[in-house]
Design a protein that fits this description.
Blueprint lengths: L7 H13 L7 H11 L5 E8 L12 E4 L2 E2 L3 E8 L2 E11 L2 E8 L12 E4 L8 E5 L2 H9 L9 E7 L2 E8 L2 E13 L10
Antiparallel strand pairs: 1-2, 1-11, 2-4, 3-4, 4-5, 5-6, 6-7, 8-9, 9-10, 10-11
Length: about 200
């Protein structure tokens, strides 16, 4: 095996070049997933609960609307409206560790709920159509502080296909899922609470 020798200046130049290279923030699969959602920016879609149990009764019989409302190269904000409840916004962010999902929860006056910005980071590359977000340490602490120990094993999943977007939450004895029809845009919902 050939040994490459650097002068002191050459070694410093090589290190400086490596340090100046951009850090790969997200995989190509994650980028494609992100871009597939962003392609619907400005549109809203209606969904329905396709899996759940008694813990999800608040979602049944109500209009469920997702709105791909704010889009940049690194962040998507997707409010999830449940009837007249405009408190929830999914925030999907590109980071140097992968994609991060947060749930921005607000009160009607715009103030943050005590349980907010919880979620998780992708633990693998996922695929162009599926990404999973296991609960992170911040969220586990927030849940415990607020008596929600049942949520400390949450995993959130998002799936996107040409005709359908799915939001799913799984943990032991819980599998909640809402499927949204991407073929039929609907009227835009009100501004989510706490957003301009």
């Amino acid at each position: 095996m050939k040994t490459i020798k650097y002068s002191r200046f050459g070694l410093l130049a090589a290190v400086a070049t490596m340090l100046s290279l951009p850090v790969s923030a997200t995989t190509s699969e994650q980028d494609a997933f992100f871009d597939s959602i962003a392609a619907h920016c400005g549109k809203a879609f209606e969904g329905s609960v396709t899996a759940g149990n008694s813990a999800d009764s608040a979602f049944r019989g109500k209009s469920l609307i997702m709105h791909v409302r704010e889009c940049s190269d690194s962040e998507l904000k997707v409010p999830f409206h449940v009837g007249n409840d405009h408190s929830r916004t999914w925030v999907i962010t590109k980071t140097k560790y992968g994609l991060h999902l947060a749930h921005d929860h607000r009160h009607q006056d715009g103030t943050e709920d005590k349980v907010t910005m919880y979620g998780g980071m992708t633990s693998d590359m996922g695929s162009e159509t599926e990404q999973s977000f296991p609960v992170d340490a911040y969220s586990i602490n927030n849940f415990r502080e607020n008596g929600l120990d049942v949520s400390i094993t949450n995993v959130w999943h998002m799936y996107i296909k040409p005709t359908e977007f799915t939001y799913r939450l799984t943990r032991e004895e819980r599998d909640f899922r809402v499927d949204f029809d991407l073929t039929k845009p609907v009227a835009l919902p009100p501004t989510p609470w706490g957003h301009e």
